[in-house]
Hints:
Elements: E1 2-9, H1 11-15, H2 19-28, E2 32-39, H3 43-49, H4 59-66, E3 71-79, H5 81-89, H6 102-106, E4 115-117, H7 121-131
Antiparallel strand pairs: 1-3, 1-4, 2-3
Residues 53, 58, 62, 92, 110-111, 113, 116 line the site of adenosine-3',5'-cyclic-monophosphate.
Amino acid sequence: AIERTISIIKPDAVAKNVIGQIYARFEAAGLTILGAKMKQLTKADAEGFYAVHSERPFFNDLVSFMTSGPVMIQVLEGEDAIAKNRELMGATNPAEADAGTIRADFAQSIDENAVHGSDSAENAKIEIDFFFGEDEVCPRLR
Length: 142
Ligand code: CMP
């Protein structure tokens, strides 16, 4: 089915200047960008976005990393977009990510792992609504 998902290019990958290389992978996989914004997250943004992880031991480090520099946030659409984006990203821990995935190629650690992607249709909707108003996500061109 055609789905939407959220992708965040994290501060480490933005700092490496590889936004375009990551976008090219989305496009080559048939994912279309319907909306995008570059943003310096506030502590409240990061805590709200990752609220589901608030009891995890890595939460404070995660919030601190995600607010350490600008991120690039995009809504991706395409056939099986949620799973497809997760395949492109590779495992959360780049040391375990398959060769050729975004994390294998651009990430250095489980904390600084280059990208985030929604893990389910339910969370994709919550995450898109967290960052994008209705008028900030464009309809497909065709
Ligand atoms: P992300 O997909 O953005 O979701 C939460 C993030 O927490 C995850 O990527 C990792 O960067 C980070 N993290 C740090 N330690 C862990 C861990 N042990 N398990 C899962 N995520 C972790």
